[in-house]
């Protein structure tokens, strides 16, 4: 018997029949003898519909009221799920973020969890009931007002509750079978990973893999919460995100590479003709940071001695492109650069694997694979367990497939049968 | 400068444009120098849609979860209204029933307010903001779970808040211009009443007038809260429900009759052949009460001496008809009656007026009017300020019109212009 935290996203509870399906799954876990806490998102498109309603009323909704509005979504899904579980003969009670003790800071719309005091959840579980908790929300303790956690908030709620309750596992249910070696829509031969480390999952999430958000993985790593990413449509075992030693009998050899991630959401700004004197690069990134923009990769070209000028390129979220170029243009006189180039037709490929630490030649093999595929590399950055390259956006898919094959990540027919058939 | 509690129902906030219209009205009251607290219902059909969702999930939803579900509706409308008011440059904050200090008993789905501690509302108003409060909901203090107040709950929330805040007036906004001498859909010449006493309003509400629910009027009378029933579509003065002395210059003569109410929602049960011995009537009404059914009018026929048997008829909500007949049938052996007759094709007409206390001949005039109109009277009951008669359902409209005319309640063309034109 274990204590399991299960999290179901909006697509898993999109309508009454989906909710009944999830209820069946929860009831089965309970009947199997486990204690079960369920974190649930708003149904399907509810959140988008509420945002749309707010926009019809005002272009600039106060964020406190926006959070009150949006949290209506989980209120609906959590009570319906509790009813559906109750209908199967298993007692279930639903709780808001506040009732579940999810305490956050005061940043409405993007609040951070600062404490979890789930005494009502513990009591509910101790009495043999299933506790349903609204994801994505908490309470600002100084005002007792509701807050929302922003993007990926429900996953973070689940991991935070699992940490506080010392749950045996946090199951994140989604519409895919787990974490894959690449996006199966681009690489049909991508394989589901049985296990991935926190560090690898962090790099994958930061490099464009959408299955888990970064902050949820950070939280899980900090508190050592084992995450099981799995499909809400099948009973197959998914992917375990954990640093725990493998169970007896499991294959323990660390593969060199966990997977290939890609990201189309970035743009590149090149600051042309920067005087190559100390402090200019620092000034550029100060200006960008003060506009609230996070940058990703940076490349400074070798200075042309004759002119004493250099070019600096960096990547950033394309959604921040306007803010960054405006800030830089405003400061063109004092920085003294010649011009700005903006390019949002780039793609980023990242190769991630904890094993590459001890395996030389990974970069060489990556560059060779891209070269063989005719893909030009525009920028490069590396970490201990990641190599990222920027390419043209229209060659990104081809690049991902080539690299996936070059590192022997493609599944064979036999493996595919094993994954699809037995669940492991 | 006054403290005004305004209540807007679901039809007044049915969509974004309605919400913006209400916001304009609230902002105008605020800009006129008043302190404003707004109680709001769920948007349009939201509550029905949520009930429908619950039914898709389970035929028997646990009431605690049902209340959590339904209170999502006011959460949406209150935050949208706060946003819309904010958009007009007036600060506004929304509060749940719990945050507004609406404390109830534990009867989920039909909770009664046991206390109101609106310190956050007072603080918000003191800081110059408009406070928006979710109607229809409160908190069960022993569990901190949300409760709903049942039918007419938002009106009751408004009156309870007004009482606790010692508001100068509680404005109930609705889709009609006020309280009328009769339902204008049946009596086109019905007049809007400028003023009606709590007692009269109680009798009107109990007799089928739908503009205010009984419990809200009871609450207002107990705490002396002046209610102003008015249209959310016009700025006309509506109807004041109050026992306060009329302001100087007002016409103070008490009219004999306030209005004619009608009710089509009742049914009649006749218990035929009841042994005319002491205790039999008591037993019948014990059985009906133990089935949870409230009865309205009772008539016991004169006993036929030869048989020692009598008939007892009573009226009850038609929705309780099945429960009452089942309970009586079950106890037929011990009560010893011959048979039951059930009739749901009845109508009830009630003539209400505090002035009838001191005016003899009101009954005679009523019966004459009905007789002249060819309407047969099946049952009669009276209170100090009300006479009710049961008729055939299909002669009810004709009866209402005849009585309205007989008591000189019909408006003249001139009066209609005054009401429609100047607002008073």
Topology:
The structure is a homodimer of 424-residue chains.
Chain A: E1 3-8, H1 16-31, E2 35-40, H2 46-57, H3 63-70, H4 72-87, E3 92-95, E4 102-104, E5 113-116, H5 119-126, E6 130-134, E7 137-140, E8 145-148, H6 153-164, E9 169-174, E10 195-196, H7 198-206, H8 214-223, E11 227-231, E12 239-241, E13 259-263, E14 266-275, H9 280-290, E15 298-300, E16 309-317, H10 321-330, H11 332-335, E17 339-343, E18 346-352, H12 362-372, E19 379-383, E20 386-392, H13 396-406, H14 413-422
Parallel strand pairs in A: 1-2, 1-9, 2-6, 3-6, 9-11, 10-12
Antiparallel strand pairs in A: 4-5, 7-8, 11-12, 13-18, 14-16, 14-17, 15-16, 18-20, 19-20
Oligomer: homodimer
Radius of gyration of chain A equals 24 Å
Instruction: Give the termini distance of chain A in whole angstroms.
Output: 21 Å
* Biggest interface pair, counts: A-B, 38 and 38 residues
Helix content of chain A: 25-40%
CATH class category of the largest domain in chain A: Alpha Beta
Percentage of residues in strands of chain A: 15-25%
Question: Averaged pLDDT of chain A, please?
Answer: 91
Structural class of chain A: alpha/beta
In total, the number of domains of chain A comes to 2
Strand order of the largest sheet of chain A: 3-6-2-1-9-11-12-10
Profile the largest sheet of chain A.
8 strands, mixed
How many helical elements of chain A? 14
The overall strand count of chain A is 20
Per CATH, what is the topology of the largest domain in chain A?
A: VC0802-like
């Amino acid at each position: 018997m274990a204590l399991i935290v299960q999290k179901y996203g909006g697509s898993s509870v999109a309508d009454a029949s989906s909710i009944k399906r999830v209820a069946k799954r929860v009831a089965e876990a309970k009947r199997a003898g486990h204690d079960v806490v369920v974190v649930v998102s708003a149904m399907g498109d509810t959140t988008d519909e509420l945002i749309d309603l707010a926009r019809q009323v005002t272009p600039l909704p106060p964020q406190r009221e926006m959070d009150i509005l949006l949290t209506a979504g989980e209120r609906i899904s959590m009570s319906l799920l509790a009813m559906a579980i109750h209908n199967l003969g298993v007692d279930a009670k639903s709780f808001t973020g506040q009732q579940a003790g999810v305490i956050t800071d005061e940043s409405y719309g993007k609040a951070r969890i600062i404490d979890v005091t789930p005494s009502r959840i513990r009591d509910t579980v101790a009495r043999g009931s299933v506790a349903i908790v609204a994801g994505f929300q908490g309470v600002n303790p100084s005002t007792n007002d509701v807050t929302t956690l922003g993007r990926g908030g429900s996953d973070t709620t689940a991991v935070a509750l699992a940490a506080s309750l010392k749950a045996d596992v946090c199951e994140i249910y989604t519409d895919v079978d787990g974490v894959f070696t690449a996006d199966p829509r681009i690489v049909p031969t991508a394989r589901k990973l049985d296990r991935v480390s926190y560090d690898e999952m962090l790099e994958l999430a930061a490099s464009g893999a959408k299955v888990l958000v970064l902050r949820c993985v950070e939280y899980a790593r900090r508190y050592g919460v084992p995450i099981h990413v799995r499909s809400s449509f099948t009973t197959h075992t998914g992917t375990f995100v954990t640093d725990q030693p493998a169970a007896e009998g499991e294959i323990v050899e660390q593969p060199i590479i966990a997977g290939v991630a890609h990201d189309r959401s970035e743009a590149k700004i090149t600051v042309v003709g920067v005087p190559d004197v100390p402090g200019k690069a620092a000034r550029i990134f100060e200006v960008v940071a003060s506009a609230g923009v996070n940058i990703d990769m940076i490349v400074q070209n070798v200075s042309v001695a004759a002119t004493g000028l250099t070019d600096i390129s960096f990547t950033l979220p394309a959604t921040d492109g306007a803010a960054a170029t405006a800030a830089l243009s405003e400061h063109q006189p004092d920085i003294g650069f010649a011009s700005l180039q903006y390019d949002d037709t780039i793609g980023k490929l990242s190769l991630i694997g904890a094993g590459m630490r001890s395996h030389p030649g990974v970069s060489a093999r990556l560059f060779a694979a891209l070269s063989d595929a005719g893909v030009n590399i525009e920028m490069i950055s590396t970490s201990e367990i990641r190599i990222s390259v920027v390419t043209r956006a229209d060659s990104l898919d081809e690049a991902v497939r080539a690299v996936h094959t070059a590192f022997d990540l493609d599944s064979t027919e036999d493996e595919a049968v094993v994954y699809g058939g037995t669940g492991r």
